[in-house]
Amino acid sequence: MVGATLAVLPLALGGPYMAALRIASESMLRRQVLLKDMPSLIQLGAATTIISEKTGTLTQNGMSASHAVCEFQLRPVDKYLQRDEPGFVPNNKSFECLQCCVALCVNARFSVFDQSHSHPLEEQDYEQHFHYVPHDQSGHPVSWSVIQARSTDPNVVDLTPQADEVLRWRNPDTGFRPYQDGNATEGGLMRMSESWLAQLSPSFDEVGLEDSGSRVVKYRKAWNFLGQMPFMSSTKLKISVHDVPSADNPDCRGERQRLLGSAGVPEEDTEEFVVLMMMGAQERVADMCVSALVDGKQVDPRVYHSLRRGELETGADPVSYTHLTLPTKRIV
Q: Is 282 helix (H, G, I), strand (E, B) or coil?
């Protein structure tokens, strides 16, 4: 009957089409499958293989930095990828400047504890939602009963370490640490910077609750934040302005020298400087650049081609960075 109707009047296709979708959706509903979009039934009918994956089995529900383009070279920055491919050599001045831009431009920071715990606090809340906690001399987290006895308020957890304790993350792998105050991209870039700072200076290993247990947060404090232009979809850019650490700062002396050297300023210059860090879409950042860094020094402006190489070889749309260093006396 339906076939005869369509042959005579093709415009009648709408009715049988919707009826077929309804019958199919009711059939799936009986199998405990609820459809949110009816046309998806057509796509499902054309599928030959369905592969499903639960977050946490193969993926971590997070983003991470895999490669970087520096000195016109595409190299892995992920420690697992570096097992098969060589990464950037230690103390590469240009790569150090890139890492400095990454650390200062992102706003994300690790979350010491989650807000989604119950009230009053229970032992399972302490174990599941508090990530940066005191550890005893054997390397194990201090038990809930001991932590609970340190506070008279049942809704307050005192994480201050005692004389024989040290603050550590429950999970040493930064890839599994929750973060806040930033999007997924910034979270992935922050994790890369955290690994880089572990090799930069031993002083950044001494972090506490005031640093959110993060080397990146402590590093940012050395570069006094002055202001920023938040990322906007219209400009595809984000700008962050900081004071360059003074020459007598022991933790960032090498950082200051590298940054001044990249700007063509004598490394021994003791004048006060500010630095403008920019991150954004590779084509927008490339348009702002007049030179690139090789061995920490400015060279010919092939920046755009370098950035495009990162896009073409990885198949991704990379986040790009640049910086401008100025003496404070030039700023009005």
A: helix
**Angstrom distance (rounded) from CA 273 to CA 246:** 8
Q: In this structure, which amino acid lies at residue 14?
A: G
Query: Could you identify the residue written with the tokens 């954004």?
Result: 280
> pLDDT averaged over consecutive 10-residue blocks of the chain (332 residues)?
52 71 81 76 77 62 76 78 77 81 84 71 82 87 87 79 86 75 80 79 75 85 88 85 84 79 78 86 78 72 54 59 67 45
Give me the long-range contacts of 56-64 (CB less than 8 A, separation at least 24). Answer: 60/175, 60/176, 62/175, 62/184, 62/187, 62/188, 63/184, 63/185, 63/187, 63/188, 64/175, 64/188, 64/191, 64/192
**234 alpha carbon, distance to own chain's centre:** 22
Considering the entire predicted model, what is its pTM?
A: 0.69
Token pair for residue 108?
């994300």
Q: Which two tokens stand for residue 166?
A: 């040290």
Chain position carrying tokens 């198949």: 315
| 132 CB burial (10 A radius; 0-12, 13-18, 19+) | buried
